[in-house]
Design brief:
The chain is built from eight helices and ten strands. By secondary structure, the protein is of the alpha/beta class. The strands form two sheets. A six-stranded mixed beta sheet has the order 5-6-7-3-8-9, with helices on both faces. The N terminus is likely disordered. The structure holds adenosine-5'-triphosphate (ATP). One of its GO terms (molecular function) is ATP hydrolysis activity.
């Protein structure tokens, strides 16, 4: 496995984004490297999805610079499969013919080997989400954007899907940006967790815990519990026992979005 973990795949400086009079993102700075797993928490409506959409090139920043590596793929809360296409065709949709055999290999990696000819309607929610993951990873993304991909799954399936994503990301080493409402999920999966509030990051913490981080081993780990307590406090779920870190410096640069060479 190549060790390309130092290559910057996402670089954001002074990002500002408003919808009408409402400023949603106000001076965001962010850098994510290949092989790094970054999780973003924050109250509802604080702009987490907007940040992902900017990174995906679906929204234009009003100010600041946004650079990403060229291959960016997104997995959403719902699998978004084409119901009239079989599983393998969903995974390889849009790929050149020469790369289509990668689809079967990727399905095997997500535990769906042998299901190539199944129709999406016959899959469970967890299986459908694994197809969506295979469809994203078969494109060999340098940047993988995950927009609450586990939120619609039942608790047990969610834990299994989290473990699978951790394993696949460790193998394929994209830069990952995960948006989630689940503090435990963020701490279990991420190398870094930030909390977005009022347009800016109010926390940006390294989660320096050994891997693999199985659900059982992390449930009672004191370091995990401390991260959990801090993040829940910053999210306003637990009462504050200390002051919130002030947001990082803001800047109003010219608007730009581009690709890291
Ligand atoms: N295209 C748009 N036009 C106008 N307002 C928008 C648009 N997209 C998002 N917003 C507003 O921007 C704010 C941030 O939305 P966003 O979906 O990014 O938040 P979020 O943190 O992902 O929320 P949630 O956690 O509930 O998914 C919200 O107030 C939303 O209504």
């Amino acid at each position: 496995m190549s060790r390309d973990g130092h290559e910057v795949a996402v670089r954001v400086r002074g990002l500002r984004k408003a919808f009408g009079a409402k400023t949603v993102l106000d001076g965001i700075d962010l850098e994510v490297r290949r092989g790094e797993f970054f999780a973003l928490l924050g109250p509802s409506g604080t702009g987490k999805t907007t940040l992902l959409r900017v990174l995906a090139g679906l929204e234009r920043p009003d100010a600041g610079t946004v650079l990403t590596a060229p291959r960016v793929t997104t997995v959403y809360q719902e699998p978004r499969l084409v119901v009239a296409r079989r599983v393998l065709a969903n995974v390889t949709l849009g790929l050149p013919r020469s790369e289509r055999d990668k689809g079967s290999r990727m399905l095997a990696e997500v535990g769906l080997g042998g299901r190539e000819r199944a129709w999406p309607a016959t899959l469970s929610g967890g299986e459908a989400q694994r197809v969506a993951l295979a469809r994203a990873l078969v494109r060999d993304p340098q940047v993988l954007l995950l927009d609450e991909p586990f939120a619609a799954l039942d608790a047990l399936t969610r834990l299994q899907a989290q473990d699978l994503v951790a394993e696949l990301c460790a193998r394929h080493r994209p830069a990952v940006v995960l948006v989630t409402h689940d503090v435990d999920e963020a701490v279990r999966l991420a190398d870094r967790v930030a909390v977005l509030d009022d347009g800016a990051f109010v926390v940006d913490r390294a989660i320096d815990l050994p891997r693999p981080r199985g659900a059982a081993s992390t449930a009672s780990d004191p370091a995990v519990l401390e991260h959990r307590r801090e993040l829940l406090t910053r999210l306003g779920v637990l009462p504050a026992s200390d002051r919130v870190t002030p947001p990082s410096g803001r800047s109003g640069l010219t608007s730009d979005r581009g690709v890291i060479a």
